[in-house]
Amino acid sequence: MIVGIRGVVKRFGAVTAVNAVDLTVADGELFTLLGPSGCGKTTLLRLLAGFYQPDAGTIRFGDRVVNGLPPYERGIGMVFQNYALWPHMTVADNVCYGLRLRRLPGEEVARRLHEGLRKVNLVGFEARYPGQLSGGQQQRVALARALVLNPDILLLDEPLSNLDAKIRIQVRAEIRRLQQDLRITTVYVTHDQEEALSLSDRVAVMRDGHVLQVGRPRELYERPRTRFVADFVGTNNLVPGEVHGVDAHARGDLLVRTALGPLRAIADAAVSGRCVLAVRPENVAVGAPDAGDGNRVAGTVSLVSYLGNTLRYDVETECGLVLKADIRDPWHHEPLPVGRPVTLSFPASVTLALSDDA
Fold first, then answer.
1. Which helix (H) or strand (E) holds 51?
2. Strand, coil or helix: 306
3. CA distance 148 to 135
């Protein structure tokens, strides 16, 4: 089922929560709305669900305009952040609640219950109550309850936010596997960048009711179009500067004046005047003897953070700007002490110049 959103606006009093949003979700795609609290992502999901009605614009499911339709006529399954399970009902009763409201025959209800629990690996848990389940198991019950309705579209509102880190990784993998097996069109809301990158076919980054960029996870990570996206998706070193020329002898690299000195960068769109340079910590080398035609910056180690599979240095430069550099193989790296002078280097090809939209 294709989802089409055109010019959708939603206001709450003087606040415009969703502002002229245009999006298309492809059939069978897992599409994520990503952004900080208050950006409008949950409001947009609730507009799709029919819990809110748009003040302007149209929402289409396939060829159907669903503006004004109640949730039960939209062919959706919804998984809520807080699970929304009835504590006095068994797993079976929770999963079958919507089926019984539809007055389906008992045999059909039993068949769908078994199939729904099989999909989420909860066969044998029918007689348990939500209070007897772990958080991950409760989330699977909520997912099964949505799936037994055979929805055209699955909507998930921050479904993993109440789980601890390890269970969250496990359940998100199960959600992705299940979505790919069923090929059901899914719209997923989260503020967690890692969750969005690992789960999604495509991601829309939202801010203040607007969609700033839509793309595949790798595109958003490697080629953000705005300072906000570069800063919000993963970790980035952001260096303010000003474009003062183009080097025709070096692939057309931009020449940028910064407080760190002159640096070279690339740009995916026309950038002139004030800009910000974005460099991922994993692309910054520590103590490299030669950066070739890239960038070199001197500084002093101010913090060393061991993150398991990564060792991260915070390096304070002479102008006071702190740059982060990651060592991806800390097992074979002797950590440098705080206070050690170092040279950082990063090629122009991974230094992205963006318009300064802050």
1. none
2. strand
3. 20
User: Residue 95: which of 67, 130, 63, 61 has the closest Cα?
Assistant: 130
Query: 322-327 and 295-306 as β-strands: parallel, antiparallel, unpaired?
Result: unpaired
14 token code pair:
């003087």
With CA atoms as reference, report the closest residue to 323 among 267, 252, 261: 261
pLDDT tens readout for residues 61-110 = 999 999 999 998 999 999 988 888 899 999 999 999 888 888 888 889 99
Which amino acid type is present at position 192?
A: D
Measured CA to CA, the distance from residue 204 to residue 216 in angstroms comes to: 9
Q: Which own/partner contact pairs does 19-23 have at CB distance under 8 Å and 24+ positions apart?
A: 19/208, 19/209, 19/210, 20/56, 20/57, 20/210, 21/57, 21/209, 21/210, 21/211, 22/211, 23/204, 23/211, 23/214
The first and second tokens of residue 140, run together, are: 């699977």
- pTM, full prediction: 0.91
148 touches 96 (CB < 8 A): yes
303-332 residue pLDDT tens:
999 988 999 999 999 999 999 999 988 888
